[in-house]
């Protein structure tokens, strides 16, 4: 399956694209994972943050949010990493992370990249050069661990 990848500033998103993003995040993070939390947190439309979309026939199947560094010395943050349940098992998560890292390196070269991983996905993210640091903690009732990838 060949996805079309787009990394878009929020000002470049159409209403339909934003709706697809929020619908996919809601379906997986809130409904599927049975986790009541405030997904719409104000970061989607802030500053230079980006949205990485993996589209197939105009359907959003993979997504990540890239939070711009707040200064030249702060890291980029990748979050809301998601693959639609209908296409899991096709290694789209690997392609999504590769694209997310490329987008970060292209937009903000030579900066570390951080993410807050669900603890059971630590081995997955380590394949892309992310190293865990600190203790496992609960975020919205789900064990997480902070991870960083150095440039």
Give a written overview of the molecule.
There is one protein chain. It is globular, with a radius of gyration of 15 Å. Strands 1-2-3-4-5-7-6 form a 7-stranded mixed β-sheet, sandwiched between helices. The model has no long low-confidence stretch (mean pLDDT 94). Helices cover 26% and strands 35% of the residues. It is of the alpha+beta class and 151 residues long. It has a single domain (4-110), classed as Gcn5-related N-acetyltransferase (GNAT) (Aminopeptidase, 3-Layer(aba) Sandwich), CATH 3.40.630. The longest helix is centred in the N-terminal third of the chain and has 18 residues, at 15-32. A hairpin with a 2-residue loop joins strand 6 and strand 7 (142-149). It has helices spanning 15-32, 92-107, 122-126, and strands at 4-9, 50-56, 59-67, 76-83, 113-118, 131-139, 142-149. It is built from 3 helices and 7 strands.
Brief summary:
The protein is α+β, with helices and mostly antiparallel strands and 151 residues long. Helix content is 26%, strand content 35%. The protein has a 7-stranded mixed sheet, with helices on both faces.
Question: Keywords for this structure?
Answer:
seven-stranded mixed beta sheet; 26% helix; alpha+beta; globular; Aminopeptidase; 151 residues; 3 helices; single chain
List the topology elements.
Blueprint: E1 4-9, H1 15-32, E2 50-56, E3 59-67, E4 76-83, H2 92-107, E5 113-118, H3 122-126, E6 131-139, E7 142-149
Parallel strand pairs: 4-5
Antiparallel strand pairs: 1-2, 2-3, 3-4, 5-7, 6-7
């Amino acid at each position: 399956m060949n996805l079309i990848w787009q990394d878009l500033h929020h000002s470049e998103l159409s209403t339909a694209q934003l709706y697809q993003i929020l619908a996919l995040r809601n379906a997986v993070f809130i409904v599927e994972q049975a986790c009541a939390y405030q997904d719409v947190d104000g970061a989607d439309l802030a500053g230079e943050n980006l949205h990485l979309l993996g589209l197939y026939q105009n359907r959003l199947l993979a997504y990540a949010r890239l939070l711009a560094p707040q200064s030249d010395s702060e890291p980029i943050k990748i979050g809301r990493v998601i693959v639609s349940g209908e296409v899991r098992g096709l290694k789209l998560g690997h392609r999504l992370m590769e694209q997310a890292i490329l987008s970060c390196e292209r937009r903000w070269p030579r900066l570390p990249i951080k993410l807050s991983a669900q603890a059971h996905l630590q081995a997955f993210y380590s394949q892309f050069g992310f190293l865990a640091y600190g203790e496992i903690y609960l975020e919205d009732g789900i064990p997480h661990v902070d991870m960083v990838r150095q440039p």
